[in-house]
């Protein structure tokens, strides 16, 4: 049986990281017409990159909405074809074949979100829990994941900075689950740097946690000894 070809796209929200953004785009390996950069109030504005660029100036940013701008764009570009969308931070070094590995894992397992193995499992792990998802610390990597377009998932814009990735992961359980792709890793250059440097975003992260608990009845993170929600 001939394999069904999957169109692949990428959305990359960015703010004031021009050199890292160019590196992320270069290691992604997609043609410019398949990459959307959502420039969130960069100074100067993003220019001269191998991608389509749209501008969104809202500050503080709503990261879930920035993702949705890209997901809606990819849906329009695909025009009914089977497709997948990589949702990426602007400070990544992606390994060769990253997108192919993510799409292959989704096709093989029936998962609708794939993410890299940053947790040392060394093998695929297909999470298809129905109902409440077990909280754990080796969760979906919010800085690099790939969604199946056919699943129709969109980020919940109530989660403005954190927990949008966790919400997508938990949404996915009803329509095929997620797959951690063993042996595929991504270099993340500035993990949590924006949150650490911005007290407004730190405050928003706490609000997002409470919003997640209100929606799902529990946190997505494993509770450590002595920790309370």
Estimated helix fraction: 25-40%
Largest sheet: 8 strands, mixed
Secondary-structure element order, N to C: EHEEHEEHEEEHEEHH
Strand order of the largest sheet: 3-2-1-4-8-6-9-7
What is the assigned CATH homologous superfamily?
A: Spore Coat Polysaccharide Biosynthesis Protein SpsA, Chain A
Number of domains: 1
CATH classification class: Alpha Beta
What features would you describe in this structure?
With 229 residues, this protein is α/β, with parallel strands linked by helices. The protein has a single domain, classed as Alpha-Beta Complex (Spore Coat Polysaccharide Biosynthesis Protein SpsA, Chain A). Helices cover 31% and strands 20% of the residues. It has helices at residues 18-28, 63-78, 98-109, 164-172, 193-197, 199-216, and strands at residues 7-14, 35-40, 52-56, 83-88, 92-93, 113-116, 125-127, 144-148, 178-181, 187-188. The strands form two sheets. Strands 3-2-1-4-8-6-9-7 form an eight-stranded mixed β-sheet, sandwiched between helices. β1 (7-14), α1 and β2 (35-40) form a beta-alpha-beta unit. It is globular, with a radius of gyration of 17 Å. The model is unreliable at 224-229 (pLDDT under 50).
């Amino acid at each position: 049986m001939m394999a069904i070809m999957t169109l692949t796209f990428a959305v990359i929200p960015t703010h004031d990281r021009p050199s890292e953004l160019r590196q992320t785009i270069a290691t992604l390996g997609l043609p410019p017409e398949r990459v959307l950069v959502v420039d969130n109030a960069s100074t100067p504005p993003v220019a001269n990159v191998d991608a389509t660029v749209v501008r969104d100036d809202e500050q503080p940013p709503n990261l879930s909405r920035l993702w949705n701008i890209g997901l809606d764009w990819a849906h329009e570009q695909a025009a009914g074809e089977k497709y997948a969308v990589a949702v990426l931070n602007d400070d990544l070094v992606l390994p060769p074949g990253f997108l192919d590995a993510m799409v292959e894992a989704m096709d093989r397992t029936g998962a609708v979100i794939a993410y890299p193995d940053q947790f040392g499992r060394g093998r695929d792990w297909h999470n298809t829990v129905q109902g409440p998802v077990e909280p754990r610390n080796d969760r979906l990597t919010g800085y690099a994941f790939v969604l199946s377009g056919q699943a129709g998932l969109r980020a919940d814009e109530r989660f403005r900075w954190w927990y949008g990735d966790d919400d997508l992961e938990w949404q996915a359980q009803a329509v095929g689950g997620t797959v951690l792709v063993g042996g595929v890793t991504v270099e993340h250059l500035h993990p949590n740097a924006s949150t650490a440097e911005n007290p407004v975003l730190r405050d928003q992260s706490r609000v997002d946690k409470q919003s997640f608990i209100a929606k799902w009845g529990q946190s997505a993170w494993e509770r450590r000894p002595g920790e309370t929600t």
